[in-house]
Design goal:
The chain is mostly beta strands. It is 4% helix and 45% strand.
Length: 417
């Protein structure tokens, strides 16, 4: 045993109602008990014998059973966190106790496996013998796990040697570390058995996920193997997602090759692509009413002021002159007093540091301003509405008609000299 505190569990059948129980530790005096378990604490490091007796009403031993075990606490090496544990001897013999709290990020019926991690790293508990019988929930904390280190295809595993206590905390929030594919491929050990997240990645293959089949996850430049190896995963037999996704997964390995595996479909989240589109002026349009232009645009799946900003650039394409440039968190910008010319307008989403995204998220249009200039001394008529009243203004020379339909008694022609 790797603890000085030991519970002796016993069962019995067909005991008469008058039966009583006691136990004898080594050669100590008998101790009366009411039932199982027998809780022994502070045992010395040695071999111990416990005899459990059933007695009749005359206090005679009817039946007994004996168990012998050895307490060996001094051989246990205590480590404070998973990073220290991972640095231990992988000899299948040395016993380590993880004294710090670790959190369950996933548990499986297969080999009673549990993925645990703390702030320093992750490790897989491989409990094929079913040593840990305490019931836990995902995101529970465990403290005081004892076990040995072993390798399976170069993946480090923690094999428990005794049961663990009840959860030391519950409902913990575990935020996966955002990593790059190239980092995991080159330094697998740094991320092994840790829950990580890959942003803006996609699956190369199409079809459906087939159990124990490898697929390719890519960021457009680097690839990593996605292993569909969890028989219980709800994506097995379902269509492989298309397009960009944010994928949460455990980092594993097959010898020197990195592999990742997701727990379920909830770990594979579609990326809602941010976009921006100029709504005014429209591409190829001609503006004839004013030399002032208020450009407008719409933004989707992007929070201006939080996710980033909009940069704008207005150029006169005839003179190649940069007319305006800047940054805004609004959905419009006003350009005043533009000359009659052809212009190109480009708007682009950037992060809060002003850096562009990859790929670039932008929109552009070309438009022309062609506003006629009217000379007030011209003999031509210019008719235009007054924007503040219902009056129509007419500028130009006077027109005379004779006779006027409204003036049947007087001529409105100029009198002769």
């Amino acid at each position: 045993m790797y603890s000085s505190d030991v519970d002796i569990v016993f069962t019995y059948n067909n005991a008469p109602e008058s039966a009583t129980f006691n136990y004898v530790l080594n050669s100590d005096a008998p101790v009366d008990i009411t039932g199982s378990p027998i809780k022994l604490t502070g045992l010395a490091e040695q071999t111990h014998t416990v005899t459990v007796n059933m007695l009749n009403e005359l206090e005679e031993i009817v039946v007994s059973d004996i168990v012998t075990f050895t307490v060996d606490v001094s051989s246990i090496i205590q480590v404070a966190n998973i990073a220290e544990l991972r640095a231990g001897l992988v000899d299948g013999t040395t016993i380590y106790e993880l004294t710090g709290e670790a959190f369950i990020t996933y548990q499986r019926a297969t080999r009673n496996q549990k993925y645990i991690q703390d702030a320093t790293g992750g490790i897989l508990i491989d409990d094929n013998a079913g040593i840990i019988t305490t019931v836990y929930n995902q995101y529970d904390g465990i403290t005081g796990i004892k076990g040995k280190l072993s390798l399976f295809n170069q993946l480090l595993q923690f094999v428990p040697v005794e049961n663990t206590a009840a959860a030391s905390s519950t409902d913990n929030e575990i935020i996966p570390e955002v990593v790059q594919i190239t980092d995991v491929n080159t330094t697998i050990t740094d991320y092994e058995s840790e829950l990580v997240e890959f942003k803006n990645v996609s699956f190369v293959e199409t079809g459906v996920f087939v159990l124990n089949t490898n697929y390719t996850l890519t960021d457009g430049t680097n690839d990593i193997i996605f292993s569909a190896s969890f028989v219980e995963a709800d994506y097995i037999g379902e269509p492989i997602p298309e397009g960009l996704h944010n994928v949460t997964a455990f980092v594993g390995r097959y010898n020197a090759t990195a592999q990742v595996v997701s727990r379920d479909f909830a770990d594979i989240v579609p990326v809602l692509q941010a976009s921006i589109m100029i709504t005014y002026p429209t591409d190829g349009s001609t503006i004839t009413l004013s030399n002032d232009v208020t450009a407008t645009w719409v933004v989707n799946n992007f929070d201006l002021g939080t996710d980033g900003e909009v940069t704008y650039t207005l150029k006169n394409t005839i003179t190649s002159t940069l007319e305006a440039t800047g940054t805004t968190q609004d959905l419009s910008i006003e350009f005043l007093g533009l000359d009659n010319a052809t212009y190109s307008l480009e708007v682009e989403l950037v992060d809060m540091s002003g850096d562009p995204f990859d790929p670039i998220i932008s929109s552009s249009v070309n438009f022309t301003i062609n506003v006629s200039k009217i000379d007030e001394t011209s003999e031509f008529i210019s008719v235009y509405p007054n924007p503040t009243t219902d009056i129509i203004n007419i500028k130009g020379c006077l027109l005379y008609t004779s006779p006027s339909p409204r003036d049947r008694t007087r001529s409105r022609m100029p009198s002769s000299a």
